[in-house]
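User: 2-(3-amino-3-carboxypropyl)histidine synthase subunit 2. Structure?
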Amino acid sequence: MDLESTYEIDRVAGFISARAFRRVALQFPDELLKDSTRIVAALHEKLRFFNQLHTGSNGDAKDVRLYVMADTMYGNCCVDEVGASHANADCVIHYGHTCFSPTSTLPAFLVVGKASLNVPLCAQKLCEYTIKAGKPILVLYGLEYAHAITEIKASVGTQCFKLEVRYADIMSPVITPSETFSSMNGEPELCDAQCANGCSTEENNASYRIGGLTWSLPVGHRMEDYLLFYVGSDDSAFANILMTYNTCEIVRYDASEDLLVNEFSQQKRILKRRYFLIEKAKDASIIGILVGTLGVAGYLHMIHQMKDLITRAGKKAYTFVMGRPNPAKLANFPECDVFIYVSCAQTALLDSKEFLAPVITPFEAMIAFGRGSEWTGAYVTEFRDLITSSPMEAKSQSEARFSFIQGGYVEDVEQQEVEEVEDGVTALVNITEKALRVRDKDSQTLIPGTAKSGAEYFATRSYHGLDIHPENNFPEPFLIGKSGRASGYKNETTEKSL
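Assistant: Predicted structure:
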């Protein structure tokens, strides 16, 4: 496909010209940086043409400044509003794979690109599997294949007859910041999205949306009644659909290999792993909140909601902003028993097998720390769906519970405020004794909690770093070290052997 068609130069230039933006940030993932210079040149040429068309003069587009952004701090799928603000940009043009997460402050235009697809073969596979399945089909797809859905519809209509096949529509590529966070992910709601392909739904039909796709089902129909036929790669967007609709039968058409994949045993292993992390989080005393985005609408509200939930559960919460987390970064905070990753739906499922402490999602944290919460198998990856107007009731830290990880009943020790004035040594001894309590294996007594804060954890460590003695106000004498190279210092008298 040519450059102008793949990167939608006409639509992007029309978006910039119609809204009179003067400073535009172009966000590219690493794999598309090679095309950035050509895209900038094509946009300048198209903006010059639009300016001349509107003004009737030989105007140019030099007053529109284009800034290329790369190496985003967080996931490439989210709009990098922080990076765009460094250039005082009026809007962001996002290229490549996207999660369609709403922005907080800046408007954005999403260019998903166009990947090649064997339409006749895909339609043939869809018809064959539909007849074999014997149940209605819902066609979902990667956003890069949205341009071929119209052809697939026409081809399936000519090859197959009397088949109930529904197709998802892609949402509008224009994102306008909003103060409301009512976007749903996998739950019925009235369809209010402006679909690029003309989303038309019947009255009172249940509408769904996930990852930039939206569709509706007839009244009385559920997602479990449909076979999900996904066209695309095994990427984060498909993993999001796989986890959200884990009770549905799913088959994936791999466009690069031209074959069908219907074996997803890994999904069950992932769900078991997530359940294990929830049980492990219940035993945590110190929780770290990882900020995985600074642009998705509602992220700050979710961070405050997680803090409130953790505090009311009698645990200690710390917030960390460190960009993309990795084992080395999180290992600097060994006092944290578990981390909560607040990010977009397609980067929330962080594989933490190599991490010192597990990393869970806000949905898993609400199950672990909320009163009466049990996992029924349903899974929510979009944190904006968890934003509630009323605070969730937290589990009491004085209630005994059975820990599957420790194999016994656990009673979390409640943090007690010291009412009487104590000297520093006595306070340190008290918190150290509480942090070092262990369970008697021969008895069936309750297992007390460990360190309840970073200060208590630090007090029980054998190494505290540099020892500073404030009572000694005199500087220590210093000695001059060796000079020269390690192979032979200047003060060494040993002669080199021949």
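The first helix runs from residue 3 to 6. DSSP finds 13 helices and 21 strands in the chain.
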